Structure prediction request, 492 residues.
Amino acid sequence: MEKKSGVVEDRLNKARKLEDMGVRLYPPAPGVDLTLLEARERFGGMDREALDRGTGSFSVAGRIMSRRDFGKASFIHIKDRTGRMQAYVRKDKVGEASFAMFKLMDIGDFILVKGPFFRTKTDELTIQAEEIRLLSKSLRPLPEKWHGLTDVETRYRRRYLDLIVNDEVKEVFVRRSRIIQAVREFFTARDFLEVETPMMHPIPGGATARPFKTFHNALGMDLYLRVAPELYLKRLVVGGLERVFEINRNFRNEGISIKHNPEFTMLEFYMAYATYEDLMALTEALFAHILDEVIGARTITYRGQTIDFEAPWKRIALFEALTDLGGAPENVLGSREEALKLARSLELNVTDRDGHGTLLTKLFDHLVEPKLVQPTFVTGYPTEVSPLSRRNDDDPAVTDRFELFIGGWEIANAFTELNDPVDQRKRFEHQVSLREAGDQEAQFMDEDYLIALEHGMPPTAGEGIGIDRLVMLLTDSPSIRDVILFPHMRHK
Prediction:
């Protein structure tokens, strides 16, 4: 058990004194007349003379964030979800008993203040306390000079404190909520149906990733936390739900970095009778809608770089990007040996079993991805690294797929779906051979999904967009931990 500090002991003593005075430390919620924003909107436009003529008495509530004591009077600032406001507490206004109670209140306590509004000599809108009540006693102090702390790990571990004292952090998560709301509005307006698919899968699939594994006692079987909802969403397309989307969690048992968290939020959507090229236009329209609704502009600044979202966005093939933007020699495109040689010279994580397409993709990630600051669709991904994508009719070595890059990061992955069950089985068999050779991220054979495809899936295109990375972009946040309320951390 954690040893209590002297400050906590002092607060516990105050709590006992309040109880001795008959004060309930944690009473039920009272009726509150106005939020602090509503009070400011109602009285903020009135000058001193108008307020002095009388506003009536109203109750507000919030957490005490600061206080200045002057013997028989105090100025405090309280904060609710809508903002902050000053309150003035005088002994002769609230009465001796209430003022004695108030003197035992601390920064961090939740209180109710009731009274009229006026302006101070510095013209600050203030509520004059005629009644004051304790709503919840805080037994631990808020951190001092929190904003200046460099220990960001503590901020992530105790996000509730981060939210209390750093208003800009709260605004990040308010904006995150508005972004997700805008996404829902966009798709429902286009006749997409929002659905929920399982979080626990008997066979993990839909992405090349290492899954988390668990065991269900009643069923007596292994289950996996999903790495992607893709195969279940496409089952729904087979079933006649021709436009579906889901915003939910994926879980991947991989490293943690500024752009990776083992639990993260994805948008995935599927659209029958469409191709990956249709999804490029749809993605441009989606971002325009989000920016208009949430930002109010089509340009943003991310990490000091201006990003322009006006369509059309740049499109480039992966192989072309490797040589033109990444500076890779032409011979790596035609020779696996040259690609492997270059990858090893760059100290990339490659193995002897990596195919040519895998090597070229890893080279692209290293040489090109960081340079793609403006929105860019990269097309022509090798079939080898695209086990669920439809082959290109003109060049079967690549697929009808794109990835979207913004700010130097991958933001979205989309393709025309592979709906040929014979080809899909062969792709799964190749993935199984990779697993048997030691690749723990390779996909499993999913017979049930193949049966679904054998019943027929219409020509379909699908896309996944990382919500966390999207929020990072639109809030100018440097790390994924800044946009996840409770990111995963190592034990202290």
Summary: The two ends are 15 Å apart (CA to CA). The chain has a mean pLDDT of 94. The chain has two domains: 6-136, 164-326+368-482.
